[in-house]
Design a protein that fits this description.
Elements: H1 2-19, H2 26-36, H3 49-64, E1 68-69, E2 75-80, E3 83-92, E4 103-109, E5 115-119, E6 122-124, H4 128-148, E7 154-160, H5 168-179, E8 184-190, E9 204-206, H6 214-222, E10 227-228, H7 232-235, H8 245-251, E11 255-259, H9 281-300
Parallel strand pairs: 4-7, 4-8, 8-11, 9-10
Antiparallel strand pairs: 1-3, 2-3, 3-7, 5-6, 9-11
Helix pairs in contact: 2-4, 5-8, 6-9
């Protein structure tokens, strides 16, 4: 009888290990980013065949990881003159009967600028850091939460088109979600997280740092200071130049962008050399991993602990 009990216990232990949620893997992060920033996608310009390939890739990743469409399909389509654009929106329902009525958005833009003037025989602006890096991070968190089922609130994983045309995709989605009265708690946009900051700087920074307590709370949830203040953010108007801004403007909620690119640590912004081989995949994996407890804390807090100042 004792042998049977020991055997049953061993089966339970092994079973628990087999279902444990895996941490983000460098190899998969590298593979996904390398595809999105490959020449085959020709810079992912809105309306281009390369942008379509990127959208299909994101949809396939959502399907593979059990993420459902929020609308009838994954695509939230819109038109800019004669060009059709489409955000890709995935949905993971919360597991708390009350809190699942509240939503958190984790987003990034997956479009880029296509072709530029040729430099050394290369005219493709691949957009590895801008913003295939943020796109891959969102896909990793979608995979994590779909397996962990640790989200009490519902999550929308949103990849935006036409950011490079003036935040057109995020603006369209914010208005559409507002029109159906989505109860949006917070929104975070991840913009250019493919390269590390100086060792003397905090790992990442948040635009609009001073308008809410989000950075403070994320650091508390993470148990370490991973999000800091970037003095030049206001000078460069970063809060209003990224896909968080339409959600802040439309919903009047804490909606910020987080980045590790600070204009001193990477020379290839909107450049044909913004390539996958220039990304620091160890840094990306570390950042994505360290953000998980921060995001879980925000998504699972029993009350809305993050708020705008002077609201």
């Amino acid at each position: 009888m004792k042998k049977l009990i020991l055997l049953f216990s061993l089966v339970l232990i092994l079973g628990c290990k087999s279902t444990k949620t895996e941490a983000p893997e460098l190899t998969e992060i590298k593979r996904n980013l390398s595809y999105l920033a490959s020449d085959d996608l020709a810079g992912r310009k809105t309306g281009s065949p390369g942008l379509e390939k990127a959208a299909v890739f994101i949809e396939d990743e959502f399907k593979r990881n059990g993420i459902k469409p929020y609308f009838k399909t994954f695509r939230d389509s819109f038109k800019i003159k004669d060009v059709i654009g489409y955000n890709v929106v995935g949905y993971l329902e919360g597991n708390d009967n009350l809190l699942k009525r509240e939503f958190v958005i984790l987003g990034a833009h997956y479009d880029h600028i296509g072709l530029l003037n040729e430099i050394n025989g290369d005219a493709i602006a691949n957009g590895a850091n801008d913003d295939a890096s943020g796109t891959v991070a969102v896909l990793e968190w979608a995979k994590y939460f779909s397996k962990a089922r640790s989200n009490k609130r519902s999550i929308l994983f949103t990849l935006y088109d036409a950011e490079e045309m003036g935040l057109k995709g995020s603006e369209h989605l914010a208005n559409r979600l507002k029109s159906v009265n989505v109860n949006l708690y917070t929104m975070i946009n991840f913009e250019m997280i493919g390269v590390p900051r100086s060792k003397h700087e905090i790992m990442a920074y948040m635009s609009g740092f001073e308008i809410s307590n989000m950075a403070e709370k994320l650091n508390a949830y993470a148990g370490s200071k991973i999000i800091g203040f970037f003095p030049q953010s206001k000078q460069y108007q970063l809060f209003m130049r990224s896909d968080n801004y339409p959600f802040y403007k439309t919903f009047k909620i804490p909606a910020h962008a987080i980045s590790t690119f600070d204009f001193t640590n990477y020379n290839y912004y909107h450049h044909v050399d913004d390539e996958a081989d220039k990304m620091d995949f160890e840094h990306m994996t570390d950042f994505i991993s360290k953000m998980i407890p921060a995001l879980e804390g925000m998504i699972n807090a029993p009350t809305q602990e993050i708020y705008l100042y002077n609201d």
